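Hey, I'm writing a tutorial for new members on how sequence and structure tokens pair up, and I'd like a real worked example in the thread rather than a made-up one. If someone can provide the structure for the chain below, I'll link this post from the tutorial.
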Amino acid sequence: MIRHGWLQGFSYIDDAPPATQLYELYYKQTIFNDRLTLQAGRMDVNNIFDIPVDATDFVNPSASDAPLSLQNAPPSQAPGLAVFITAIPQSTVIFGAFFNGRSHPTALDAMLNTLATIEEPDGTSLNIEFDQNYKIAANMPGTVGIGAFWRTGKLPTLDGGVQSGTGGGWAFVDQTLWQTTDDTQRVAAWGNGTVNDPRVSEIDYSIQAGLLGAGIIPGRPEDKIAIGLDWAHISTHAGLPKSYEMATECFYECYLGRGITVQPDLQYFTHTGGGLYPDALIALIRVGVNF
């Protein structure tokens, strides 16, 4: 779905429609010596699946979310159940089931949210992901993950038809390349790939990658600097002039103390909206407050 010109979006916060909404409200319980965790309520699917940790500070949502897999178009919150199983050391299996029904909002949505309904069919997203933590050296930990989803319901296709259900998948790796023994300085690389149904999603597959340095600026142990690339191939069913959209991003996250960060961010889009719009340069500053 093209939002304000681009297919991938440039930020879920800044590019989302104006609204007041209850974002997340859920209950979480861990049992069996931390081997099983249950999480039920209203949740953001993107906070559970497909998370290379070193990509989460990037503003472009494609960096740490499987882009446009239907369930992830903002807002991606939905009532559901997630199950985390860590029976094997360093390994986690995640199951999730989430109800997507923004065309028929629940009573809670109607009471607390002002987000307009959209033409999205009701359906359930079933998700599964396997994550494995590892180390290639004492100070070089990493994580690799692979997952898939299936979305039920009658879904519109790009050629104007309707089909029952659709699916997709993703894989990611997050690897520390260098780290001091006291963990105060580190450089990490991450990569992410997604596959979606070309009959339903404008983006049928995509690749994201980036580098992040934390504490490497002299005298600035809490600051971060990073660069990333988001490349999205466009389905031939979409009928767009170009075969891909690409976004390049760089940022510097400056820690001011007392939990406050200021993050100048630059993004450059090539073949914006699949070639429907000129190349675009986006500059923004994000302020974060943790308390």
